[in-house]
């Protein structure tokens, strides 16, 4: 099926002319959309059910809205499905603005997320946080966005989405960025029927995206992360080590080991368990050949109070002292019971009291810790860009980081017998303090640590 038949189906994709019709008048308005070559490839290869695995910034949103508009302007009922209300709100705003600029909206319902066009067609917008969304409706076209984020997508497709297409023998376009292999998106894309087409739409296919920026990301990111995020490949995140970029070169041996510098801030990062309770000490040097240096590890049996007794020597650190760690420390995981005055005794209350710090010295401890998959990506990025260094005296941390493996869904494998990973958790929380804005924060640190005086 070539591009030309599609033009005849619902208008030409290059600068299409859209019509606004009222009871007595007809006014011609133009909405300009020119598909790039990558989007045209999707049109040429389309079938009834189309599964598009997208790299970052391929242009799936603009392409999906283009499809939605043309079917609606032919008087055919259409719908857009997003994984959650937040994602849906963005699409609603973009699509609504496009129709308003063309003068094509007769009515709109902000609460129901529904647009009625001047030709009488109704466009529905649904969130699949409720898998029954759209049940009982009938559509000539549905767009399903970010399928990999939809929990229970197969159930939603079989029981709700697919039946909506029966009356009109409707068409479906399903878009997503890949998210490993342990999800419904991977399963449906690898088990297609004869009426389905599968596409890998890489970031390189978007001519409006500077290819040098993609190449720069390729140089910075771990290979599996780049393949997933930009090349639209299904990557098995359960293979190999959890930190695929780990190498023994990040260990500082013997006289190479770095001592605590009194002129730089000192960070203590905690992981809370009774056996053991763990703390790592690290400093961040934003200068040539700098980075995040993990200098000491402290592990005790007995809880936070016992560990803080060992850390008293750092209370008078000449520069600033900061503390971070496991979010569970706000709930007293190793510090059950009440203080004499009736105040609940949490791990962080013990730390503040014994290490003589205030709330301003606690970094992000009130925010739940980053998900394992995000943490994995950030630390692999930091390792690849040589931003993390570990003294050989941190022997348990080195063991943890060099043996940690992912589960089938890409999380960190942990148990209290063979894979405690307590030092590794403290390590992750420490790195997170330097990645508050994600990769962008680490990129800025990299720029500082590779500064050169060369002309």
From TrEMBL:
Pfam families (alphabetical): Terminase_6N
Protein name: Terminase
Organism: Neolewinella maritima
Taxonomic classification: Bacteria, Pseudomonadati, Bacteroidota, Saprospiria, Saprospirales
């Amino acid at each position: 099926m070539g591009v030309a038949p599609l033009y005849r189906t619902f208008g030409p994709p290059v600068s299409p002319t859209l019509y606004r019709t009222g009871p007595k008048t007809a006014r011609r308005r133009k909405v300009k959309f020119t598909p790039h070559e990558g989007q045209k490839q999707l049109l040429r290869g389309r079938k009834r059910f189309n599964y598009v695995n997208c790299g970052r910034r391929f242009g799936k949103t603009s392409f999906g809205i283009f499809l939605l508009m043309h079917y609606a302007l032919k008087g055919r009922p259409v719908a857009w499905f997003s994984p959650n209300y937040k994602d849906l709100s963005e699409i609603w705003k973009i699509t609504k603005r496009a129709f308003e600029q063309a003068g094509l909206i007769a009515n709109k319902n902000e609460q129901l997320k529904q647009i009625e066009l001047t030709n009488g067609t109704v466009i529905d917008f649904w969130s699949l946080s409720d898998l029954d969304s759209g049940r009982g409706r009938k559509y000539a076209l549905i767009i399903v966005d970010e399928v990999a984020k939809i929990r229970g997508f197969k159930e939603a497709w079989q029981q709700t989405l697919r039946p909506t297409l029966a009356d009109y023998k409707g068409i479906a376009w399903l878009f997503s960025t890949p998210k490993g292999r342990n999800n419904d998106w991977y399963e449906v894309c690898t088990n297609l029927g004869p009426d389905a087409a599968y596409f890998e739409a890489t970031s390189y296919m978007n001519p409006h995206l500077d290819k040098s920026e993609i190449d720069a990301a390729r140089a910075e990111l771990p290979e599996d992360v780049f393949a997933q995020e930009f090349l639209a490949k299904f990557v098995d995140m359960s293979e190999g080590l959890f930190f695929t970029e780990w190498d023994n070169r990040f260990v500082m041996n013997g006289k190479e080991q770095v001592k605590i510098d009194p002129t730089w801030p000192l960070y203590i990062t905690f992981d809370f368990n009774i056996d053991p309770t763990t703390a790592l000490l690290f400093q961040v040097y934003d200068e040539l050949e700098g980075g995040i240096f993990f200098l000491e590890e402290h592990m005790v049996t007995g809880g936070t109070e016992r560990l803080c007794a060992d850390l008293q020597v750092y209370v008078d650190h000449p520069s600033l002292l900061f503390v971070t760690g496991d979010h569970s420390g706000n709930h007293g995981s190793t510090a059950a019971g009440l203080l004499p005055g009736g105040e609940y005794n949490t791990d962080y209350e013990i730390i503040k009291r014994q290490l003589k710090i205030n709330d301003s010295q606690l970094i992000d401890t009130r925010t739940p810790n980053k998900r394992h998959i995000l943490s994995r990506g950030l630390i692999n990025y930091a390792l690849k860009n040589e931003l993390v260094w570990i003294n050989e005296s941190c022997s348990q941390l080195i063991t943890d980081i060099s043996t940690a493996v992912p589960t089938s869904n890409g999380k960190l494998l942990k148990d209290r017998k063979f894979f405690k990973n307590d030092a590794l958790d403290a390590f992750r929380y420490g790195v997170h303090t330097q990645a508050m804005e994600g990769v962008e924060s680490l990129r800025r640190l990299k720029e500082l640590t590779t500064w050169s005086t060369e002309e």
